[in-house]
Write the structure tokens for this entry.
Amino acid sequence: MKKIIIAIDGFSSCGKSTMAKDLAKAIGYIYIDSGAMYRAVTLYCINNNLFNPDQSVKENELKAQINNIHITFQIDLSSGNPHTYLNGTDIENQIRSLEVSSHVSTVAALGFVREAMVKQQQQLGINKGIVMDGRDIGTTVFPNAELKIFVTASAEIRAQRRYDELKAKGENISLQDIISNIEQRDQIDKTRAVSPLRKAEDAILLDNSHMSISEQKEWLLTQYHLHTHA
Ligand code: CDP
């Protein structure tokens, strides 16, 4: 069967990665979480003291070091899910913290960071057979992707999902902090100058506010079959 590129974009915490990961497993495609790459650059900045006291990025220093940042993915044998590596170290858990979440959209708004990440993402898709999720996959990274989905859900539901996820991992945070973080990131993502978050004209809109994980998996599989059997 012909291999295609599947681009899944949308707002933060609306379950994009769960659906993208499930679909990739079901159809034997590679799954790439592009957000994890921006999160990895953010962790690099935190670890290397690249934030100013006002939380802006020390741009010249990051620019000088951007080619030292090597991000790779490897399947974790115990969970079967891909883990993100920064310069050879597994950072999958660290990049999901609220500290990284609260800085990531500032880092992801920088043009030279996006340029470096988009280049790597396009390289990963060169043989197709890939599901990638993010904010600009259908618009900038793979404008010719055969199947594009734009996911959204109400802000309260997204915050509750992220709260449950972080609670399950033992992070002690308030729902209010998560709501503020989600609103702040959405705002930065929508209004940045380079590749702002928006639905590609040819993307299919999915509001999954009232869908279970298995319902959305089913829905996505149907879309995949429609696009590969056409
Ligand atoms: O998991 P969640 O949807 O909350 O976020 P993520 O996919 O891990 O992405 C984290 C942040 O990276 C987003 O809020 C964006 O600021 C940025 N991002 C981006 O700019 N472009 C992408 N293709 C993916 C993520």
